[in-house]
Design a protein that fits this description.
about 160 residues; 2 helices; 4-stranded mixed β-sheet; mainly beta
Length: about 160
């Protein structure tokens, strides 16, 4: 299962109305960012249609979610706090449909699973940047884009 600023990873799953669980095991970091967004259908083009929303959410302020906390489908960056032990998060789905879960880590790094009545298998998955390493020597990055910069968001 492949999950989604490093570029996000994403997985599309069909979820029914109600509560599901995202279950994570021990992994390389004490937290993991994710965004859950509804998508039109199971085609790759539908995933592409929402990926910019996910990238923008990854650039926004994160909302801390502790184990047993809620993840809702919206343009919000959830920072999953991952202490030792049980790491289960509730995914609340308001409407049956197809959803894309974007995460910053590959699911295998945390042995991630989305559970309903049974474990769910992704309908489609995509890695935008498959292999990466964290390099403590990198202290800044230069980006050139047209437009104004919001200093508060940059330093927040």
């Amino acid at each position: 299962m492949t999950y989604a600023v490093q570029k996000p990873r994403s997985a599309k799953v069909r979820l029914t109305v109600g509560r599901h669980e995202l279950v994570l095991q021990e992994g390389p970091d004490p937290s993991m960012n994710c965004v859950l967004l509804p998508v039109r259908d199971e085609r790759f083009e539908s995933l592409q249609a929402v990926q910019m929303d996910a990238v923008l959410a990854f650039s926004d302020a994160e909302v801390a979610v502790w184990p047993q906390g809620r993840i809702m489908p919206r343009k919000r960056l959830h920072k999953l706090i991952l202490p030792e032990g049980d790491k289960r998060f509730t995914i609340e789905i308001p409407e049956t449909g197809t959803y894309a879960l974007f995460t910053e880590h590959h699911p295998a790094e945390f042995q991630a699973a989305v559970l309903g009545s049974d474990p769910l298998v992704p309908l489609l998955s995509k890695e935008y940047k498959p292999d990466h390493e964290h390099d403590g020597a990198v202290s800044s990055v230069g980006i050139t884009v047209p437009g104004d910069l919001d200093g508060k968001k940059l330093n927040g």
